[in-house]
Structure formats: C-alpha cells, structure tokens
Design a protein that fits this description.
The complex is a heterotrimer of chains A (226), B (231) and C (41).
Chain A: H1 3-22, H2 24-43, H3 51-81, H4 83-89, H5 94-124, H6 132-157, H7 163-190, H8 199-224
Chain B: H1 3-35, H2 49-76, H3 79-111, H4 119-140, H5 144-175, H6 191-227
Helix pairs in contact in B: 1-6, 2-3, 2-5, 2-6, 3-4, 3-5, 3-6, 4-5
Chain C: H1 6-40
Classes of the chains: A mainly alpha (226), B mainly alpha (231), C mainly alpha (41).
Chain lengths: 226, 231, 41
C-alpha cells in the first residue's frame, strides 16, 4: 500500500474512533435529518403530488443539509481538541492529511445517509426495489463531491467567528452540481429508467469528483499551513 | 514614496479613469436611447441589452481574474496579488448586482416571467453568491496571511465551479426541453446595435479598471493606516 | 408594432445607474477616510 494511503487511513481511523467515542457529529446530523424528513412530510399535500415525484428532491435536500451539519461538527470538535496542530507538526504530506480528513468525513456523512435512507423509505412509503444498488452508487458519487469541498471549507470556516453560518454560505454553491446530478439520477432510478438516460449526469458527477478531489488535496496545504 | 502617498496616487488615478468611464456610460445611455433602433419584436425593453451584456462581460472578467490571480498568489505569495483579487471581487460584485437586477427586469416583458433558470441568469446568480462568499470569508478573517490564503483557495475553487454550473444547466435543459423563447441576443445585429454594444463593452471595461484601481488604492491606504506610514 | 414596454427599460437604466454611481460613491468615501487615517498614522 502506498505510504500516503497508509497515513491517510491512520489519520481517518483516528478521527473515526474519536467520533465513535463522542458521537456528537453523527447523532446531531441523524436527528436533524429525521426532523427534516418529518417537516417535508407535513409540508406537502399528499393528494396534490405523489410521493415518488417529490422523493428525490426531498431525499437529497435532507442529505445535503445533514451533511453540512456533520461537516461543521466534525471540524469544530477537532478544533476544540487542538488535535490538528499536533498532526501538522509531524512531517505528514498534506495530501495524505487531506485524504485522511476526507475519508473520515465520508465515513461520518455516509453513516448519516445510511441511517437516513431507511427513515426516508419508511416516512415516504417509497419502494426502492431494484433501484437500491443504483441509489447507493449515486449517493456515493455525489457525497464524495460535496464532502470533498466541504472538508476544505469547514477547515477554513472553523477559523472564523461565525463558522456555522460561514460553511453553508461558502459550500452551497458548490453543492449544486452534485445535488442536481444526484436528484436527476435518483429520479430516473426510482422510475426504472434505463441507464442510458442517466449517463450524462453520472459523467458530470464523476468528473466533478475527479476535478475537486485533486484540486482540494492540492490547496489543502494553503489552509492548514502558515 | 510612502505607502499612503502611493495609495493616494492610485486612488486619484483610479478616480480619473472611473470618471471618464462614467461619462462613457452616460454616452452609452444617450446612444441606446437616441441612436439605436427599436427592436421590432422586443420593443424598447430590448435596450436593456446594452447594459446587461457588458456588465456580464465585466462581472465574468472580474471573476476569472479573481480565480487566476488567486492561483498566482498561492504560487508566488505576493501580497499585491491578494490585494488585486480582493479589489476585483468587490467590483465584480457590483457588476453582478447590475446583471442580477437588469436581467429579471429584461426577462419580465420579454419572457413573461421575472426569473428563469436559463444559462445566463443561473450563472449570474452563482457568480453573485460566489462573490458574496469570497467577500464574507475575507471579512471574517483578521490575520492578513490567513485571509489571503483562504480567499485564494475559494477564488480558485469558485473559478473551477463555473464550468460545472454551465454543464449542469446545459444537461438540465437538453433533457427538459424548454418552450421556444425569444433569445434576447441575436447573432446578427444591425450595425447601430452592434456598435453601441461594443462601445458599451469598452466603457464597462474601463469602468472595471477604474474601480479596481480605486479599490486597490483603498486597500493600500487601509494597510498603511494600520502599520504606520512606511514605504 | 413593437410592444409597449419602455417602462421596463427606463427602470433598468435607472437601477443600473444607481448601483454603479452608488458603488463608486461609497468606494471614494471609504478611500478618502482610509487615506486620512493613513496620513495621520
């Protein structure tokens, strides 16, 4: 295994273990997601719009908001523990450090999504059926997209006074392409459309991930180093 | 020359350029209302075109420069680049505001709706939010080095977001065919319209340069005020 | 016969002027204050 990957996994493992102990980020995000789903349910008129038409948007707005909450909490907790400073003193290549943070955040957000999805199926009576593997796939693709940029921005936001407000202001424009792609693909998956109809969006998601993972790992050093 | 004298001379030069540009804008107003013909299908509202499109060019230029200069800053670490990026972002915000207001005012009589998620308006909205995010981040950071580095990061990321927004809107529209609408910018313009558009474009570019110069001088003056008057 | 929508054009031209002149004015005012402060420093 390449050295940077091993380092990244070690760093990610440390963060994940810390979160498992305190559980602050994941718990608050999951509770938040459940509440959002409840609100969405009462906010719509069941006779006017079928659940399946609204479902993709509801699911992805919930994922997006919960992800931002998780990202914010994750970095805030770390700032309180000044854990990052110790890491920075060690000669860890910054790309590996970023990869580690990214993997940990993906684990957090992924967990929140994994818990939210069954809740969503339950509350909205949506039949996933054969769409499930596809939904997992597109969720992974889109999540990588916005967690990558989210990791960079939460690292920056946490150094400002209004971190909870700064992160959404910075991050939301960047979440739009992955969100649009995810909603479009999810809608087609739920409607049982053939793969060919989603290729354009899937390519967009994949390209976005590629570009921003590379870019963010390159600029991470500007965020954490003097 | 001390720092505050340098700042002053820049602000003075910028003011001259801006004054000339604003006179030019007034000239464009006259041309638009007195010289250009009235478009048959869109009527007088079409004249908004001479303001909306050039401010779009300036806003996009401002934004691209923020991104490019941000990348240069991370590479070269020159504080002048950071000052320029901040200036370009603020001026770009002003031009985006012009786009975001004239756009819907133009859309309403032509397309019947104040807003539509077409490529240009959507991009305008995103540029606006990206500018705001950039400036909000700068305002929230005190340490100049940190402020410069962090804004550079968002500058670069923002610039790379733009093609993806474009792609998303394009994909969205090709898969969701919109009703055929009157495209406000025709590829073949009568010569008076083309001439006025190009003159307006040049005038708005001059205005960008003038305003950025003033804003850059302002940044210099603020720094001189904080650190004492050193060269 | 072109549609009667000159009002929109007038509104747009006024709004644009307000934004551009307003921003220029604010900028110059901030610049003057900063230069004064710099001179005194």
């Amino acid at each position: 295994m390449p050295e940077w990957l091993r380092l990244a996994l070690v760093i990610a493992g440390k963060d994940v273990r810390a979160e498992l102990r305190s559980r602050t980020a994941i718990l608050s995000a999951v509770v938040f997601a459940a509440l959002v789903l409840v609100v969405f349910n009462f906010a719509r008129d069941p006779t006017a719009l079928a659940a399946v038409d609204l479902a993709p948007s509801v699911l992805w707005v919930t994922f997006a908001l919960a992800a931002m909450l998780a990202l914010n909490r994750a970095f805030t907790v770390e700032k309180e523990n000044a854990a990052l400073d110790g890491l920075l003193l060690a000669p860890v290549p910054r790309e590996a450090l970023f990869a580690g943070k990214l993997l940990a955040n993906l684990a957090f957000v992924g967990t929140v999504e994994a818990v939210t999805l069954p809740l969503f199926v339950l509350f909205f009576n949506v039949d996933l059926g054969t769409a499930l593997p596809g939904i997992i796939g597109v969720t992974a693709l889109a999540t990588v997209g916005f967690v990558t940029v989210g990791t960079i921005f939460s690292a920056m936001a946490v150094r400002t006074r209004f971190a909870e407000l700064m992160l959404p202001v910075l991050l939301l424009p960047f979440m739009v392409p992955p969100l649009i792609g995810a909603v479009q693909v999810t809608a087609r998956l739920l409607a049982g459309r053939p793969l060919s109809e989603m290729m354009g969006w899937l390519r967009l998601l994949a390209l976005y991930d590629l570009v921003f993972v590379i870019l963010c790992s390159l600029v991470f050093t500007a965020v954490v180093d003097e | 020359m001390t720092a505050s004298e340098g700042a002053e001379s820049l602000v003075r030069r910028g003011t001259v350029i801006t004054a000339a540009a604003l006179l030019g804008v007034a000239g464009v107003y006259v041309l638009a209302w007195g010289y250009t013909p009235i478009e048959a299908r869109q009527g007088v509202a079409q004249k908004i075109f001479y303001l909306h499109v050039p401010s779009a060019w300036s806003a996009l230029l401002a934004f691209s420069l923020v991104g490019i200069v941000s990348a240069l800053y991370l590479w070269l670490n020159d504080p002048r680049l950071d000052r320029f990026a901040a200036a370009s972002a603020e001026v770009g915000l002003a031009f985006s505001a012009v786009m975001l207001t004239t756009g819907p005012i133009w859309a309403k009589p032509i397309w019947g709706t104040w807003w539509t998620w077409d490529a240009r308006l959507t991009l305008t909205l995103f540029l606006f939010f990206l500018f705001i995010g950039y400036l909000a981040l700068r305002a929230a950071l005190q340490d100049p080095g940190e402020r410069a580095r962090f804004s550079a990061v968002i500058g670069i990321l923002g610039l790379l977001l733009v093609p993806f927004i474009h792609l998303s809107v394009y994909l969205f529209r090709t898969l969701h065919p919109q009703p055929v609408v009157l495209k406000p910018s025709r590829p073949s313009l009568p010569p008076e319209m083309l001439r006025t558009l190009l003159i307006s474009g040049a005038v708005f570019l001059l205005l960008y340069i003038g305003l950025v110069t003033i804003r850059y001088g302002l940044a210099l003056a603020e720094e001189a005020g904080e650190h004492g008057d050193a060269a | 016969m072109p549609p009667e929508n000159a009002g929109y054009a007038v509104a747009a031209y006024i709004v644009a002027a307000v934004i551009l002149l307003g921003y220029t004015g604010t900028l110059l005012r901030r610049a003057r204050r900063a230069i004064d402060r710099a001179r005194r420093a």
